[in-house]
Amino acid sequence: MPKKKALIIGITGQDGSYLAEILLKKNYIVHGMVRRSSMPNTQRIDHIISTSRDNEKLNKKVIREYGDLSSSAQIQNLIKRVKPDEIYNLGAQSHVRVSFEIPEYTYDIVGIGPLRVLEAIKNIKPNIKYIQASSSEMFGNSKKNLQDEDTKFKPESPYASAKTLGYWTTKNYRDNFKIFASNAIMFNHESPRRGVNFVTKKIVRGLCEIKSKKRKILYLGNLNAKRDWGYAKEYCEILWKILQLRKPNDFVIATGKNYSVRDFVEATGKELNMNIIWKGSGLKEVGYDTRSKKVIIKVDPYFFRPNDVQSLLGNSSKLFKIMKQKPKTSFNQLVKIMVKNEIKLIKTNRLY
Ligand code: NAP
Ligand code: F7E
User: Fold this and answer.
1) Span 282-296, mean pLDDT?
2) Confidence class of residue 125 from pLDDT cuts 50, 70 and 90?
3) Which ligand is located closest to the Cα atom of residue 102?
4) Which of 16, 32, 41, 158 has its CA 20 to 30 A from that of 95?
């Protein structure tokens, strides 16, 4: 049987890199869209990038394809040339706070990007299976404490509004043009490969640096926000499984438990033999390590958002019912995985 071909948009990101490894193991030919940059942006996939385009010589490596979600022409050319069986759209300006600073760009890539890909699929090869990385941010500060596929969207940021557009575009192309197009509504998922300006990786790296005396203070924003944090590697395996279903569908992927940023700090501290307690309130609140007897966390309003989502908690019973699948890694296991890896990384000055 000929090998299946996948195109991963966003292959250089956290999820793209895990998904590429998963698909290569499943014997796929994997093409990955990479943006041209003045400094290397392929650290997460350097170990699997191929220099050859010859399928026979690929030997479980990714074929790099230059491209950008801003360009319909590039997307069309790529789809015409590669003719993938499956497209995973993980490409995004994925930082919520930054989306308030660059809203137009965020709308273009995150909101219109999926339309560009789906329109190309419709016109060039309508039997391509497509999955859209949708986000729990679409629920915003929801009236429902537990969010599922039927919960009303209430996007609070340019990022969330743009993701909501991507979600509906995906559903419209499925309903109107019979494209196999599914949404994975993913709640926060983390890993050692998480970008350093997301809160979990920032906390883990920051506390590891404090522990190894490379820095004194870690500055954070909203400590009270609660998130449903899962393990990225597991979520990527589920993305693949969603595309193997007989019919396209939309699924929430979540652990069903949520914790605050403050909880994440305390759990990370515990792994590093610190005992962090909180003193003061508001902007004056600090995290104090009773072992070193030092203040190690302070609040910086720079990291606040004009409007933050205070609590997200996902109900992934539909995923479990239809696919007998649910994320298994617990909050404490996730923290352990991230801290263990960071201790190794920090010795070599690598981020991933
Ligand atoms: P990430 O680490 O920020 O990766 C984003 C990827 O998109 C990177 O490869 C990035 O390339 C690429 N990209 C950015 N702008 C692009 C453009 N103009 N054209 C083409 N590619 C572009 O994000 P992630 O955490 O892996 O998340 C994967 C997807 O899931 C994203 O769409 C994100 O919005 C969504 N999502 C993530 C979570 C989560 O908790 N991680 C939850 C829900 C949904 P560079 O490396 O060159 O920047
Ligand atoms: O923030 C608070 C912050 O930036 C989590 C993206 O993958 O998941 C991610 O979006 C919470 C927020 O992730 C800092 O205010 C406190 O309440 O790690 P984050 P996010 O905004 O939830 C969703 C599902 C996505 O789709 C996105 O692509 O932590 N927080 N202090 C902080 N956040 C950051 N970044 N930095 C801080 O210093």
Assistant:
1) 98
2) very high
3) 1
4) 32
Regarding whether 55 and 31 lie in a shared domain, the answer is yes
Residues 179 and 291 grouped into a single domain? no
For residue 127, the tally of other CB atoms under 10 A from its CB is 9
**pLDDT value at 53 more than 80:** no
φ and ψ at residue 274, rounded to 5 degrees? -110, 155
Assess if residue 352 is contained within a domain.
Answer: no
Q: Which atom of ligand 2 is nearest to the CA of 197?
A: 35
What pLDDT, on a 0 to 100 scale, did the predictor assign at position 349?
A: 79
Q: How large is the C-alpha radius of gyration of the chain?
A: 20
The answer on 139 and 19 residing in a single domain is yes
Q: Using 50, 70 and 90 to split pLDDT, how confident is the model at 175?
A: very high
Round the average pLDDT of the chain to a whole number and report it: 96
Rounded to the nearest angstrom, the distance between the alpha carbon of 273 and the centre of ligand 2 is 25
For the CA of 203, the nearest ligand: 2
Q: Give the span between the Cα atoms of 238 and 96, in whole angstroms.
A: 24
Q: Which atom of ligand 1 is nearest to the CA of 11?
A: 9
pLDDT at 24: 96
Where in the sequence is the domain holding 30, given as residue range(s)?
A: 5-192+230-256+310-328
Residue 24 within a domain: yes
Residues 291, 180, single domain; the answer is: no
Residues lining ligand 1, CB < 6 A? Answer: 9-16, 33, 35, 37, 41, 68-70, 90-94, 109, 133, 135, 186, 188-189, 195
User: Is 195 strand, coil or helix?
Assistant: coil
CB of 261 closer than 6 angstroms to any ligand 2 atom: yes
Check whether 136 has a pLDDT greater than 60.
yes
Are the C-beta atoms of residues 96 and 140 closer than 8 Å to each other? no
Task: Give a yes or no: residue 133 inside a domain.
Answer: yes
Q: Tell me how far apart the alpha carbons of residues 188 and 171 are, in angstroms, rounded to a whole number.
A: 22
Of all protein residues, whose CA lies closest to atom 2 belonging to ligand 2?
A: 222
Query: So what's the pLDDT on residue 54?
Result: 64
Distance 158 CA to ligand 2 centre (A): 14
pTM, rounded to two decimals: 0.97
The answer to whether residue 333 sits within a structural domain is: no
